Structure to design on (239 residues):
């Protein structure tokens, strides 16, 4: 009798554990496997929904817009720099919980907030339609360059790069970006003042493209902040 009771007890416990395990798995947040494509030499990880029949038109237009961004990077930089940048992958979603385009340097924040940890080290376009937004083109015509600059800073140069930190600190000490002209015509605090990471990405926009904050373009950066201009030239090459 004791053996039968023990066997029954063990079988009930095994059943309970299996049920608990199944319930846990059921409650886990599942993430899609992205569809991998190549656009202008970059690895693009697509949300499968973006490639469905229902969203085909949006997917195609978003890809064209993304290609436009990547072409403007591809043709301003040396081939050597482009090859390195093309190793930095990009993820594009149909409609993600996150809104703004961004770069994800680590897994911890992603896991803690319930997002796919495979977004680590990716430039992320959470909402494909933002690539087609007139507002985005008016305000952030080089937003993909900005996010790729973050990825390059992290993975190639290191966020601990002393020259970038020193340039940021020097600009803060001089008050160079305390109050500057915004693309809309207002005077505001430059976004580059946030930290040395945003400083690098913003100065990269000015050096290689067009920024939404003054200095808007390369010549203005050279005049306004010659030491940072020299650093951008050292990092990205002479234009």
């Amino acid at each position: 009798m004791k053996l039968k009771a023990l066997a029954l007890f063990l079988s009930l416990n095994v059943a309970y554990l299996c049920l608990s395990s199944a319930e846990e798995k059921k409650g886990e947040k599942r993430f899609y496997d992205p569809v991998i494509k190549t656009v202008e030499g970059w690895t693009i990880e697509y949300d499968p929904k973006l490639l469905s029949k229902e969203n085909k038109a949006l997917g195609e237009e978003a890809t064209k817009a993304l290609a436009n961004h990547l072409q403007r990077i591809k043709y301003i930089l040396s081939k050597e720099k482009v090859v390195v940048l093309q190793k930095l992958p990009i993820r594009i979603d149909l409609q993600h919980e996150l809104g703004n385009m961004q770069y994800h340097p680590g897994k911890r924040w992603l896991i803690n907030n319930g997002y796919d940890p495979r977004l680590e080290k990716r430039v992320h376009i959470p909402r494909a339609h933002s690539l087609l937004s007139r507002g985005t083109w008016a305000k952030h015509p080089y937003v993909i360059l900005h996010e790729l600059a973050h990825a390059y800073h992290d993975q190639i140069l290191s966020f601990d790069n002393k020259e970038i930190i020193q340039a940021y600190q020097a600009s803060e000490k001089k008050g160079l970006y305390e109050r500057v002209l915004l693309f809309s015509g207002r005077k505001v605090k430059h976004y580059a003042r946030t930290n040395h990471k945003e400083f690098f990405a913003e100065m990269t926009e000015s050096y290689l493209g067009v920024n939404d904050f003054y200095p808007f373009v390369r010549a203005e950066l050279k005049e306004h902040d010659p030491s940072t201009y020299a650093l951008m030239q050292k990092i990205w090459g002479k234009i």
